[in-house]
């Protein structure tokens, strides 16, 4: 569950599914994940973007081995100590893996909360409202219903009020009364994302993909990243080195070695 939630943080389900199944078959436990070469894990991460999540997942696994006897912790405070695990991910693991009575707030849930309450909600109030609405003993079903409802009925582009089962309780009523949608200014709800084509994210991804085949010499960075600005290419490559996702040696840029992975622990 933790692996799936980390993978889904900024990547859509169709891209995650095939990667998830192979990833958990190769690294099925925190101990296996902690001991694996980071380079091997990054190869399996290809196609999902944001490779820092992969590194954080391994650091989290190493913490589990060191502090939690190789098990995923079962308290909110302990989960929040893991690298790359925030309030939503921690609560998702608690409810979906351990059936704990906690409410999750993702983009879809935040939108539903704001519209039904008719208020612009900050992060703290959104979580408090979600906690208040949670039916004790039914957290797993409830959280899935809330997320699915926001994804299929109370959607970002259009609220399908004509089929809404809680229309009578909705203060905003999907904008039918002419009021401004409170969800647009609420925390957690979707904001426009920068264009991917030509972005630094795309260039970094191209380099990471190339490194799964072999080392890349500095003079080939622009070619591999498909950008003409040499300084930009060097800056992006150095950022990956600084993040521990790439290493630089006399061979050029390459995936992290097993020795580097051990040192990062």
Could you say which structural class the secondary elements and strand pairing correspond to?
Answer: mainly alpha
Q: How far from one another are the termini?
A: 23 Å
Reported CATH architecture of the largest domain: Orthogonal Bundle
* SS field, number of helical segments: 14
How would you characterize the largest beta sheet? Answer: 2 strands, antiparallel
What is the total domain count?
Answer: 3
Strand order of the largest sheet: 1-2
Topology, number of strands = 2
Question: Which oligomeric state applies?
Answer: single chain
Describe this structure in words.
The protein folds into 3 domains: 97 residues, Hypothetical protein, domain 2 (Endonuclease III, domain 1, Orthogonal Bundle); 79 residues, Endonuclease Iii, domain 2; 65 residues, Arc Repressor Mutant, subunit A, CATH 1.10.10.10. A hairpin with a 2-residue loop joins strand 1 and strand 2. The two termini are 23 Å apart. The protein has 265 residues and is an all-alpha fold. Helix 8 crosses helix 10 and helix 11 crosses helix 13. The longest helix has 16 residues. The radius of gyration is 21 Å and the shape is globular. 53% of the residues lie in helices and 2% in strands. It has a two-stranded antiparallel sheet with strand order 1-2. The chain contains 14 helices and 2 strands.
């Amino acid at each position: 569950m933790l692996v799936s939630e980390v993978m889904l943080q900024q990547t859509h389900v169709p891209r995650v599914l095939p990667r998830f199944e192979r990833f958990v078959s190769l690294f099925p436990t925190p101990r296996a994940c902690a001991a694996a070469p980071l380079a091997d894990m990054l190869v399996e991460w290809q196609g999902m973007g944001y490779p820092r999540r992969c590194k954080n997942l391994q650091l989290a696994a190493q913490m589990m081995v060191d502090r939690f006897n190789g098990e995923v912790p079962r308290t909110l405070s302990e989960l929040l100590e893991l690298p790359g695990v925030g309030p939503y991910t921690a609560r998702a693991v608690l409810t979906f893996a351990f059936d704990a009575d906690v409410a999750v707030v993702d983009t879809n849930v935040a939108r539903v909360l704001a519209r039904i309450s008719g208020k612009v909600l900050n992060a703290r109030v959104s979580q408090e409202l979600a906690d208040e609405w949670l039916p004790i003993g039914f957290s797993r079903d409830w959280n899935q219903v809330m997320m699915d409802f926001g994804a299929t009925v109370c959607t970002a582009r259009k609220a399908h009020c004509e089929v809404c089962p809680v229309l009578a309780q909705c203060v905003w009523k999907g904008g039918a009364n002419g009021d401004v949608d409170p969800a647009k200014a609420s925390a957690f709800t979707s904001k426009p994302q920068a264009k991917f084509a030509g972005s630094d994210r795309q260039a970094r991804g191209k380099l990471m993909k190339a490194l799964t085949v072999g080392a890349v010499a500095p003079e080939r960075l622009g070619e591999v990243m498909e950008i003409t600005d040499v300084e930009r290419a060097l800056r992006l490559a150095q950022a990956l080195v600084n993040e521990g996702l790439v290493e630089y040696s006399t061979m050029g840029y390459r995936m992290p070695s097993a020795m580097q992975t051990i040192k990062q622990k």
